[in-house]
Every structure is written in structure tokens, then in C-alpha cells.
Design brief:
By secondary structure, this protein is mostly beta strands. The protein contains three helices and nine strands, in the order E-H-E-E-H-E-E-H-E-E-E-E. It has a single domain (8-114), classed as Immunoglobulins (Immunoglobulin-like, Sandwich). The strands form two sheets. The protein has a five-stranded mixed β-sheet. The chain has a four-stranded mixed β-sheet with strand order 1-3-7-6. Strand 6 (66-67) and strand 7 (74-78) form a beta hairpin.
């Protein structure tokens, strides 16, 4: 039986990133994150670099964290190389055209949420409560 990736994101142009960004719970990170690259893009371009665009910015070592089989639209990335702290995280995948050397980029992003986020604020300010039951 052939298995399909379950922890997935789509690599898209920067303008399409807001609609392709998923919300992921910290506890839902799998060992691998699978990034789907459009077929027509994959045929002509080869990945040479992945950069974290959100703070703190950094370059991922694609030789250590990324695997791709020729002819496959999925790029397999080890999740422990990605940020899993609460917040919005964006990555840029840089590609080079196999024939003419032109470079192009695709992006993927996700928002990490925690089950018990810190709440440094008060839900209700009781100082302004109604004093309807008080008699004057």
C-alpha cells in the first residue's frame, strides 16, 4: 500500500502565501514536513537553498534537512530543522533553472500555536462593573 504525506504545505509564489499558510499546533509536528512544489516548476528548476525569512533569519542546510527524489513533486524536510515556536514562520525556497541558470523562488509558511499560551492580560476589568444592586 502506497502511503501519502500527512504533514504537508504547498510552496507558492509570495503573493499567494497568505492563502497557503496553515495553522499548526506545536504538538502536531511530525518528523518530516512535506512541501509540494508545482509540477511545471519542479520539471525545470532545481532547489539550491532554503531560507527562513521570519525572525530570526537563517539559512537551512538543505543537505542535512531536505531530501528530494527526482520526478517527485514533494520535498521532504526534517521538521527539527524548522522553527516550532509559537508565531508566524515563512521560508523561501530558492531554485535555479536547469538549462539557463535563471533563479526563482517559492515560499511556504505556517503559524504555530500552543495549547496553553501565556496570557499577560486580564480578561475582565472588574473596576467598572455595574453597581445596580447598590442603594444610594
Amino acid at each position: 500500500m502506497e502511503s501519502y504525506p500527512v504533514f504537508t504545505l504547498n510552496a507558492v509564489e509570495k503573493k499567494d502565501l497568505p492563502s497557503a499558510t496553515k495553522v499548526i499546533n506545536q504538538d502536531e509536528f511530525e518528523y518530516y514536513l512535506w512541501i509540494k512544489v508545482p509540477v511545471e516548476f519542479r520539471r525545470h528548476f532545481e532547489l539550491y537553498q532554503i531560507d527562513k525569512m521570519s525572525e530570526p533569519k537563517e539559512e537551512l542546510d538543505i543537505n542535512a534537512f531536505c531530501k528530494h527524489d527526482k520526478g517527485n513533486m514533494w520535498y521532504q524536510i526534517k521538521s527539527f530543522g524548522l522553527c516550532n515556536k509559537p508565531g508566524h514562520h515563512v521560508y523561501k525556497m530558492s531554485f535555479v533553472h536547469k538549462e539557463n541558470g535563471i533563479t526563482s523562488s517559492l515560499f511556504f509558511g505556517y503559524i504555530v500555536q500552543a495549547d496553553d499560551p501565556e496570557k499577560p492580560y486580564r480578561y475582565m476589568d472588574r473596576s467598572g462593573e455595574c453597581s445596580c444592586n447598590e442603594t444610594n
